[in-house]
Amino acid sequence: MGLNDFLKKIMGNKAQRDMREISPEVEKIKAAYENIKSLSNDELRARTETLKNKIQDSIAPDNARIAELKASIEDTELHLREKIYNEVDKIEKDITEKIEKVLIEILPEAFAIMKDTARRLNENAEVVVSATDFDRNLAAKYDFVRIEGDKAIFKNEWMAGGNLIKWDMVHYDVQLFGGVVLHSGKIAEMATGEGKTLVATLPVFLNALTHRGVHVVTVNDYLSKRDSEWMGPLYMFHGLSVDCIDKHRPNSEERRQAYLADITFGTNNEFGFDYLRDNMATSPLDLVQRMHNYAIVDEVDSVLIDDARTPLIISGPIPKGEDQLFDELRPKVEKLVSAQRQLVTKYLADARNLMKSDDEKVRDEGTLALFRSYKGMPKNKPLIKYMSEQGVKTAMLKTEEIYMEQNNRRMPEATDPLYFVIDEKNNSIEMTDKGIDLITGNSDDPLLFVLPNVGDEIAELEKNTTLNKEEKQAKKDEILQNYSVKSERVHTINQLLKAYTLFERDVEYVVIENQVKIVDEQTGRIMEGRRYSDGLHQAIEAKEGVKVEAATQTFATITLQNYFRMYHKLAGMTGTAETEAGELWNIYKLDVVVIPTNRPIARNDMEDRVYRTKREKYQAVIEEVVNLVNAGRPVLVGTTSVEISELLSRMLTGRGIKHNVLNAKLHQREADIVAEAGRKGTVTIATNMAGRGTDIKLTPEVKTAGGLAIVGTERHESRRVDRQLRGRAGRQGDPGSSVFFVSLEDDLMRLFGSERISGMMDRMGFKEGEVIEHSMISKSIERAQKKVEENNFGIRKRLLEYDDVMNAQREVIYGKRRHALIGERIGVDISNMIYDGAEAMIEMAKSDEDYDGFNLDLMKVFAMDSPVTEDEFKSTRMKDLTEKVVDEARQTFKRKTEKMASIAYPVIKDIYENKGDQFESILIPITDGKRVFNITTNLKTAYNNEGREVIKDFEKQTLLYVIDDEWKEHLRQLDELRQSVQNASYEQKDPLLIYKLESFGLFKEMVTSINRKVLSILMRGQIPTRDPKEVRQGEQQRRSDYSRYRTQKDEIASRSSSASNDPTKQDTREQQKPEPIRVEKKVGRNDPCPCGSGKKFKNCHGA
Known about the structure:
This protein is an alpha/beta fold. The chain contains 37 helices and 28 strands. A hairpin with a 2-residue loop joins strand 2 (145-148) and strand 3. It starts with a helix and ends in a 70-residue tail after the last strand.
């Protein structure tokens, strides 16, 4: 017995230790539940109010202290305010910690209340309580509540996801375990059918009692809308507000109200995009989100791992964005790819002949030809088929090892005859000299597609003594311009080569309505609005002959990884997180806790069946499906791409088997198709993760026949995707089975599969059509999957490290932006800008002992003369000198702003007292001597604080204007830097390290530039007019227009008669009457208001 086994025997495995830790809490919940059950309905709701009050009472003194501190700010000097704000921040942190302690105390009672609410709605058609104002408002909006006199009656039936549901669920013990785990900020792994949506009601209810906001995050808008409607009434029964952001337009008042609700449902992308929009806002009216308090992420592995690597980007057009080289260079790339295809076909034909020889030297020539064919086009189908034959792949790998020796020293011998070399594992392509010669053709410049060595050229230029300084600079600019032009040309060629050789239509992407749309490799769903980065999407558009979209510039961006790490507390639930537990801990510090099932799993998971070729494998799949249908069992066939779905569909049609197809082209009725998949003899072809969030319910006759059969047509590179497919069967103790069919031609086996499998099949002399089925084989395949998972984790971690650099900068800039927008801490920021600006200025001047330059800089930025003489400048220490300059600058700023306020106030007073009823806001012109800023200010506020509001608005608008301008340019520079540092790897340097150093330098330059520009404007600000007649009415603040960032909805395609017999071409959506599904109650304007007030609806809640 090993040490690990010995320790496990004594201490138990992780799952057992987790359960032991949680069990005492669950026992407390059960004890509390027995007391709660005996309460009346009104007493039950009163208990909830008691818990809410307990939370608020625990933090009341802290809230009072914060209010007191904020009230003292206006009377405090600018440079002393930071101390007050630091104290406020510390108290707010203490409040958060105190709330967490109270929540732990009240957890058993809160969970018991939620469980008993579910029981009462399950056992009673109607639950009667004393009506509150909240109930009356509910009755006006929803039809599951009605008011009769002073009573509110809650029904146990309501609309959810377009269907009328009757509440029939009560939490069982393992769901209490799950609830405790979620409240602790961990991931609860629960098997399919264990009721994750119901589990979430427990921690959501508990944390919503704080009124600080709970976000429930789903993978698509169907689930967010359905779950908010399905679980909402349980929360509303206890006076908690519920909303869903996906029901409202971005940047609308309705969406802001959705975030103000106690519980907010929404999709991961929309939460992220709203954060970005908030940080592009130009008015407080545009802000919709509040603090990131607590989030529960449904299907957490899909959101935090699969989607996390894709950044959310809000972008806009750039000048000359239409000027791209993709269409221009496409013919050259097509010529290159065609030549390479002919060459690798010839090498493959040579290899077939030479490898049959008895002469070892001839065979070696054959394996070299095969290796060249592989390096030239690894996805070539005839090559893949040939390499699945006995001994072929093993021989090629031996040849590869020879040329890879001594750090690839001999590799050029093998690859030079090719036009370009593909590294499929790393998704990269490199052109050879032969390829460059082919596309250069008869061009005047033989180096048209060769990047110049800029470092050497500039070094040579520096040695040239015949040129003066201006001529050298002109030559240097010419060298850099030449590099920039050639760099774009080479990059375009490279991306086009990737598009033609590594990206297949109907596998990685589909073309719908002349648009290239990415297919999610994990789920098979179309990812609307997503585009490949770095010009790859434009390259694919050029390849497919559709319109090449203009290049865009990033305005705001964040990865989901960094967005979700902003939450004070984050939790998640899924059925397939255990295999990614290491990544979830490393990146998010989220522990995965496996929750036991309510009933033992009865599913029969069979060993993998391994075939030599894909053709044999698909024939075996069809035979298996036919046998299962004849046995009266429903079958779910899992595929990894649209192409395979369509191939299997044609094969089943040929055998006369009726079936449904669900793939990236036909995804609109996903939930419906998967839900119907449990009927006798039903065959459904779907991608491996189709149907996340839906349960396949079985009829009694299907259970008797053996339950749902899962047939996987390929092992996915990620184990949890396979587990997700298996998890469709065997819910809540149902019978079922699962089996995966694998071939040596599958991508996973080709790239990462153990050579032992192909070697074993060779040694045992397996013939075509024969199958291997053994636990050792299944374990070997899982080891291959682990290799890929480790590789993918490395890629994601690397991407996160790049984004972390930007994230640190983003937090600083967005913090300054938020202060400017709200106006609360703007004075502190300006005071710090004065200090930082003066310090940077003095540091530079002191290093050169340049007093005149220092004096000039002071005049440029602070619009003031030096407070020290030249002798004092030279003799005073830098720290003391900085203090003197900062004191003088702050006094100057205070004097100038007070003067501006005193000039503005008489004008404001005159307008307010004579035209106050006509104007809500006014435009005050302020100039810095170069340009005029029209500052919109609230007339009444400016009158009440004697013109100080004008100064505050001037500061706000100046900061926003300068920060946005500089940040946009900084993001563009970071985009360029990220591309350029990749060349560092050729010089044996770490691109990430260079990126960190260079980006820090760029960020420092940006902050210095922001400080100088802001101070230069603010220090020179003056009001050019004192005539009230010249002051115009200010426009009322409006919300920004974000309509161009809206997501699209697919329209129903026409049903052509020619497609009627082909399930892959049929529209899988039901014909529906064009009537909207209304969840909210529709009340006539003249009908009595449902709130019970006795007034007409139009005069009450319909007003």
